[in-house]
Design a protein that fits this description.
The protein is an alpha+beta fold. It is 50% helix and 26% strand.
Length: 104
């Protein structure tokens, strides 16, 4: 699914103009980005959570030349799906994981 597909779906569901759908989708994305830039965690119940993880500086290698390259520290966005989302994506595994837990 692309951003345009998402805008189209929002537009159809809300009986909105395409421009209104674009504004809604852009506002959601901008809000998530702004929160992550500010160091906040975003939690959407039943969907998952977004947070920032800190990566330490390290020495890497250029795969083409083999030269050592210093990779600086950086912050990267991380998404962790909720249990509900994982169960919806893997419906056959939801029941088997409970059975395995209760059998132990």
């Amino acid at each position: 699914m692309t951003k345009a597909d998402l805008v189209e779906k929002v537009t159809r569901l809300g009986d909105l103009t395409r421009r209104d759908g674009e504004v809604i989708v852009e506002t959601i994305f901008d809000s998530v980005i702004a929160a992550l830039q500010g160091g906040d965690k975003i939690e959407i119940r039943g969907f998952g959570s977004f947070r920032i993880r800190q990566r330490n500086p390290r020495i890497g290698r250029n795969p083409k030349t083999g030269d050592r390259v210093e990779v600086p520290a950086k912050r990267v966005p991380y998404f962790k799906p909720s249990k509900e989302l994982r169960d919806l994506v893997n419906p056959g595994e939801a029941g088997s994981s409970k059975e395995a837990t209760s059998a132990s």
